[in-house]
Amino acid sequence: MFLPPSDNGHEDLLRRDRRVLWHPFANLALWEREDSPVIASGEGVRLTDVDGRTYLDGTASLWVNLLGHRHPALDRALLFQAGQIAHATFLGATHEGAIALAERLIDLAPAGLTRVFYSDNGSTAVEIAMKLAFLYQRHRSVREGKKIPATFFSLDRGYHGDTLGTVGAGGIERFHQVFGPLVRPSVTAPAPDCAHCPAGLSRNACRLECAGMAERLLESHREDLVAVLIEPLLQAAGGMIVWPSGYLARLAEACRNRDIPLIADEVATGFGRTGTLFACEQEGVSPDFMAVGKAITGGYLPLAATLVRESVYEAVREDPGTFYHGHSYTANPLACRVALATLDALESESLLAAIPEKRERILACWRSLEEAPFVENIRAIGLVAALDLRHVDGSPLTDPGTLSKIREKARAKGLLIRPLGATLYLIPALSSSLEEVGLMARILADTLWESAGEGLFTRTP
Ligand SMILES: *Cc1c(COP(=O)(O)O)cnc(C)c1O
Question: Which of 402, 296, 360, 394 is nearest to 74 (CA)?
Answer without folding.
Answer: 296
